[in-house]
Write a structure and sequence with these properties.
- By secondary structure, the chain is an all-alpha fold.
- Helix content is about 50%, strand content about 0%.
- The longest helix has 14 residues.
- The protein starts with a helix and ends in an 11-residue tail after the last helix.
- The structure holds iron/sulfur cluster (SF4) (2 copies).
- The site of one iron/sulfur cluster (SF4) has 15 residues, from helix 3.
Length: about 120
């Protein structure tokens, strides 16, 4: 759980402008696969604004497709990046995320593989 009240407030401020119009629903690749409202940009905006942040924090590819047609100009990716950064700072990221960071530090890519020389 994100403990920083400041961070929660900043995230709430970003997603608070969602007018729940649903125009973004058809654009989200995650919703297309998982087919449940909580994975839609609208659903994620609602969950980011309350205490359910951790449940969906890695359910966004940061593709920004939803931002292109959002009438409220919601910057959902910014909220996700901010929330993830706070969790990493608090050392509460998920094991897969920790592994990815280790790989990036070690090899420069998230899979931990070294580039083959030509
Ligand atoms: S298009 Fe924007 S305002 Fe409309 S539901 Fe999606 S995120 Fe909210
Ligand atoms: S940025 Fe996230 S929420 Fe928006 S369309 Fe892409 S995956 Fe869906």
């Amino acid at each position: 759980m994100i403990e920083s009240e400041n961070a929660k407030e900043e995230i709430r401020e970003i997603v608070g402008g969602c007018i729940k119009c649903g125009l973004c629903r058809s654009l989200c690749p995650v919703l297309r696969e998982l087919k449940e409202e909580q994975y839609s940009p609208r659903g994620k905006a609602m969950m980011l604004s309350d205490e359910s942040i951790e449940k969906i924090i890695y359910d966004c590819t940061l593709c920004k497709a939803c931002e292109k047609q959002c009438p409220a100009n919601l910057k959902l990716c910014k909220a996700f990046i901010h929330a993830r950064a706070v969790l990493v700072k608090q050392k509460k990221e998920i094991p897969e995320n920790r592994e990815m960071i280790k790989n990036l530090e070690k090899s420069g890519n998230m899979f931990g593989t070294l580039e083959e020389e030509n």
